[in-house]
Design a protein that fits this description.
Oligomer: single chain
Number of helices: 15
Largest sheet: 3 strands, mixed
Shape: elongated
Strand order of the largest sheet: 3-2-4
C-alpha cells in the first residue's frame, strides 16, 4: 500500500502571511479551490485553460498539505491566504459559476511527476506582470486557443514527465504525528517513515548515523540517530521523537528533498510504501491484528462495557469488529469499526492505564501483561528481565529453545530463543517481542 495524498474534506487557512496574527478559518477543500480559482483566473477563458489552471491550483495546495509544510514550521494551519507565500484566498470572494463547475469536476485530481508520490508544487504566475519558471496563466489562454488540452498545456510548463492522478480519496485531514511520543519499543508505519526520513537527512548531515534496521520497530540504533539529529538541530537530546522533534524531522526532510520546489527530488513510490494498511478493517490478517486482538482482550477483561469475546489468531473477525465498535462508542470515537490512527492511539492509552492501575488482586500477575512496548535486540531493563525469566522457565522445563541468560539485556541468545518460539508456533519470525509473542511465551512458561 502507498501512502498516497488524500483530498482533505476541510483545510485550515490562515488569513494573512504566516507571521501575521491573523485568524484561521476552516473551509471545505472544494470551497477553497473555487475561492482561489475565482480570484486567479477568468470565467471567459477557454475551458481547457481553466482546467489546466484549476489542476495547478489543486496540486499546489495539496503539496502544502501532504508535506505539512506549515505544521512542520510550528504553525497550526495548512496554508495561508497570501499570494506572496501561497495562493490568493479572499474571505468574502464570490465564485464564478463556470469555474465552480470545473472545480466540482476536478477537485480530486492532481498533478504528479513520474515515479513520485507527492502532488507537484505547481508554481504559476500571471505571465504578464510577473514571470516564473512554472505555468503562465495568460499563456494557457493562447495554448488552449491553439488546440492544446489541459494535460498538454501542463506538460508544456512542467515537463513531459508529469501525469494526472484521478479520483483521489476524499478523507478527513489527519496530522501525521501519531499523537504520542515515538520512542524505543514503539512500532508502526510511522516508525518506518521516520527511519527513511532520518537516513535521507543523514546524506546531507553525515554526523547522523545510518539506521540499518529498516523494520517498523523503533530499535536501539534508531535512538542513536534521533539523539544525533536532536543534537545537530539544537533540540533537547532525548532519543524520543515528541511532536517538536517529529515536525523538525519532517521540515528538514522536506528541505533536503526540496519538496516545495517545482524541480523537487520528490518522494518516490518506494519511500512512501507502507508496511501496514492505514486502517485495520474486517477481514484483514497479520501480526498487527494479533496485537489488536490482544489489546482488546485485555481491555474487555477489565471493562464491562466492552464485550469479552476472547479473540485469537491473526484475523480481524466479526467478533473483533463488535469489540472495536464497543470500544469506539465507549471513548467517543467515530464508531466505524475501522482501527485508524485515532482508535489505535486511544487503544494503546487505555491498555497502559489498565496495566498501570491494576487492582491488588491482579498486581501479582503484572509481569505477565505485555509491557506496552516492543522488545528487540539491544534493549535493556526490567521488561527484558521479565521476558528472560519466562524464557528461562521454558528452557528449564522444556529444553527446546537455544537458551537464555537472565541479564536484563536483550542479547543474541535471547533473540534466537524468541525466533525459535515464533517459528514453532506460527508467529512472525523477526526476533521482536510484541503482544502475541509475549502472550505465547508467558503461556508456555506455565506449562
Amino acid at each position: 500500500m502507498i501512502n498516497s495524498p488524500i483530498i482533505p474534506t476541510f483545510i485550515t487557512v490562515h488569513i494573512g502571511s504566516p507571521e501575521e496574527a491573523g485568524r484561521n478559518i476552516n473551509v471545505s477543500f472544494i470551497e477553497y479551490i473555487k475561492n482561489v480559482a475565482s480570484g486567479e483566473i477568468y470565467p471567459n477563458w477557454p475551458i481547457d485553460s481553466i482546467k489546466a489552471n484549476v489542476l495547478a491550483i489543486i496540486s499546489f495546495a495539496l503539496n502544502r498539505i501532504y508535506n505539512e509544510w506549515y505544521r512542520s514550521l510550528g504553525y497550526n494551519f495548512d496554508i495561508t491566504s497570501s499570494s506572496q507565500y501561497d495562493q490568493s484566498f479572499g474571505v468574502d470572494r464570490q465564485f464564478f459559476e463556470k469555474i465552480s463547475m470545473v472545480v466540482d469536476e476536478l477537485f480530486n485530481d492532481y498533478i504528479v511527476k513520474d515515479g513520485q508520490v507527492q502532488p507537484l508544487f505547481a508554481q504559476y504566475c500571471d505571465g504578464r506582470i510577473t514571470k516564473c519558471s512554472g505555468l503562465s496563466q495568460w499563456g494557457t489562454v493562447s495554448d488552449a486557443n491553439s488546440g492544446l488540452g489541459p494535460i498538454n498545456i501542463l506538460k508544456k510548463y512542467y515537463g513531459n514527465n508529469i501525469n494526472i492522478i484521478y479520483n483521489a480519496s476524499v478523507e478527513d485531514n489527519i496530522m501525521s504525528f501519531p499523537g504520542f511520543d515515538v520512542e524505543l519499543g514503539t512500532s508502526g508505519n510511522f516508525v518506518k517513515m521516520l527511519k527513511i526520513q532520518l537516513n535521507r537527512i543523514g546524506q546531507n548531515y553525515p554526523a547522523i548515523p545510518v539506521i540499518k534496521n529498516d523494520s517498523v520497530y523503533f530499535t536501539v540504533d534508531m535512538v542513536d540517530a534521533v539523539k544525533k539529529f536532536q543534537e545537530v538541530f539544537n533540540l533537547k537530546v532525548t532519543g524520543v521523537v515528541d511532536k517538536s522533534t517529529w515536525y523538525k524531522i519532517k521540515y528538514i526532510y522536506n528541505a533536503v528533498k526540496k519538496i516545495s520546489d517545482i524541480y523537487s527530488e520528490g518522494i518516490s513510490i518506494e519511500e512512501a510504501s507502507l508496511v501496514f494498511s492505514k486502517k485495520l478493517v474486517l477481514g484483514d490478517k497479520g501480526n498487527f491484528i494479533r496485537a489488536l486482538n490482544y489489546y482488546l482482550n485485555t481491555i474487555a477483561y477489565f471493562d464491562d462495557d466492552i464485550p469479552y469475546l476472547e479473540l485469537s489468531g491473526d484475523e480481524f473477525t466479526d467478533d473483533t469488529l463488535e469489540m472495536v465498535i464497543a470500544f469506539q462508542n465507549k471513548y467517543n470515537i467515530s464508531s466505524t469499526g475501522e482501527v485508524n490512527q485515532e482508535t489505535w492511539k486511544v487503544l494503546r492509552e487505555k491498555y497502559k492505564e489498565i496495566i498501570n492501575n491494576l487492582d491488588d488482586q491482579y498486581v501479582t500477575y503484572l509481569d505477565e501483561f505485555f509491557p506496552g512496548r516492543y522488545l528487540s535486540r539491544g534493549m535493556k531493563g526490567r521488561d527484558v528481565l521479565n521476558l528472560q525469566k519466562f524464557l528461562y522457565i521454558i528452557c528449564k522445563n522444556k529444553g527446546d529453545i537455544p537458551g537464555v541468560e537472565v541479564s536484563s539485556e536483550f542479547d543474541r541468545l535471547t533473540e534466537d530463543s524468541v525466533k525459535y518460539i515464533q517459528n514453532k508456533y506460527g508467529l512472525l519470525v523477526n526476533g521482536v517481542v510484541g503482544p502475541s509473542t509475549w502472550y505465547r511465551i508467558v503461556e508456555l512458561s506455565k506449562e
